[in-house]
Amino acid sequence: MKRNISVFILLILLASSFKYRTKTRETTQPVITAGYDSPAHRKGAVKSSLDAAVADLQKANLEMAKGNPEFFKTLWSRQDDVTIFGGAENTDSKGWKAVEASLNNVSKVPAQDVVYTYEKIASQEGVAQGYLIQKEHYRFADGRNADLHVTVLFRKENNVWKIIHRHADPITTVVKSDKTVK
């Protein structure tokens, strides 16, 4: 008899938990996203602030290629930890003064007729940092070309995305041999 009572109590508990479980599934709970990146937050046509910073970067790249570094410089952080690897003279620059000097050196060779295109490979926005990986292609009127692999790191400063690092390497094409080694 004790066994039957135990089974009966277990069945009641099981049935009641099922009843409450189905009720909680029927109700819609608000999604709590405090402190987390939420894909649901990014739905729709709203541009995230990093996307806007990247759009400004694309405009600044074209201006920079034309010899005007001023807009590009406004996108940079003024902190001492900013860096450029593989800049215009293929040198590394650390600190805002060195980065600014590197950016000013690019403007010494202005090119009015330049076509700039880019291929965005990846980007990610975090709470305080973001990154962009892309290929940049520059076609100058004098026949010169520049194709680059570029990585740009951003940091949010006073609610504005600022560039803290840019690394650019030339894209090299590997010529494949027609001969097969056996």
TrEMBL record:
**Per its UniProt record, what Gene3D superfamilies does this chain match?**
3.10.450.50
- Residue ranges annotated for the SnoaL-like domain, each copy included: 64-168
User: What is the top-level taxon of the source organism?
Assistant: Bacteria
InterPro entries named in the record: NTF2-like_dom_sf, SnoaL-like
- What protein name applies here? Nuclear transport factor 2 family protein
In its UniProt entry, the species of origin is given as Dyadobacter sp. 676
